[in-house]
Amino acid sequence: MRIVRVANYVAPRSGGLKTALRHLGAGYQAAGHESVLIIPGEKESVTDTEQGRTITLPGPYVPGVGGYRVLLDRRRLAATLRILRPDRIEISDRTTLRWLGRWARRHDVPSMMVSHESLDGLLRLFGPASGRRVADVLNGRTAADHDKIVCTTRWASAEFERIGRPVTRVPLGVDLDRFRPDRRSESMRSRWAGPDDVLLLHCGRLSPEKKPRRSLAALEGLRHQGVRAVLVVAGAGPLRNALQEEAAARGLPVRFLGHLGDPLEVAALQASADVAIAPGPIETFGLSALETLASGTPVVVSSESALPEVIGSAGLAAAGEGPGYVSAVLDLLSHPEAARRQAARTQAEKFPWSASVDGFLAAHGAASGAHRSSGDRPGADRVGVDRVGGAETLGRDAGRA
């Protein structure tokens, strides 16, 4: 079976979505299916990777969101899909790519929308007072346009279920080999924290919807209570400069590392912290928080988000903007270190990527171990992908469509 996945907002430095796409695509390939990923880029390109063929089509930057691009040329994308002749389409953008559900229906291709974000939550934070009603209308249209909606948590599925739309729930996973407690590094800890300091970690994009100021408020509250705490922030985003200025003005010991390109460095950092903070109130899964748990570090999360159901008893949920996070951090630190690290790892082990791959393939109606045979749909043979053998060929075919 040829599964063509289309996603926006996948930048070279993007995090959770890029990670999920990579692991799911590699899983599809390993299960004997053919995975093709289409994403926006600076220019057209075609590459073969572990997760299958990756095609970039030119897409403009979105102003003010930190380097993300989007696929806006519908004609070119539709022409590329006609060349590929997919058996299934998996869409990871419920806004600018929602039209693909209708395209797939016209071409007799089953479509699946993966809801990686909460429209209800975004409108609650930034939208009008009537945001819930607007979300219900738009979510109803999204569900009607696609054959299946996949959400990764109960929290994420609630906005569809309340309007009577069926949802398939499939959790994401974590790389349990890359993220391990034994990657803890005393030499890394000593770069930012003294031997008696509590090392806090904020790992994520520094953008308004992630509420990174809550992590600074938690640090400030802990220090006011006499806790020798320092905060390391791993991640980039539009709020970085403002957060650095605020931390300096308040005399807070915060180290801003920016984007870390070495995955093993990230894993060592997550394993070396005492407690991590994931304060985003509209997270639909929280992949970074799960990776931190796999590294043996407990996490304090927002009670407003989906993360409480992901972290289970391996962390704590906090409400509000700061004081609740202080109490939660102190509570976690009151437990023996070995016990809290073991609890974190045990919770993460419930989420292997293999289970996610099986769940997504089941949602596609594809067996996890079945090899694709030509003829899943009329005309769905290898020729479609072979024609997309290079950027020049792809552009020529798309231009004729």
UniProtKB/TrEMBL annotation:
It comes from the Bacteria. Residues 367-401 are annotated as: Disordered. Keywords: Glycosyltransferase, Transferase. The keyword Iron does not apply. Residues 15-170 form the Glycosyltransferase subfamily 4-like N-terminal domain. InterPro entries: Glyco_trans_1 (IPR001296), Glyco_trans_4-like_N (IPR028098), Glycosyltransferase_grp1 (IPR050194). One of its GO terms (molecular function) is glycosyltransferase activity. Coiled coil: none annotated. Residues 195-342 form the Glycosyl transferase family domain. Pfam families: Glyco_trans_4_4, Glycos_transf_1. GO terms for biological process: carbohydrate derivative biosynthetic process. Residues 373-385 have a biased composition (Basic and acidic residues). PANTHER family: SULFOQUINOVOSYL TRANSFERASE SQD2. This is GDP-mannose-dependent alpha-(1-6)-phosphatidylinositol dimannoside mannosyltransferase. It comes from Paractinoplanes ferrugineus.
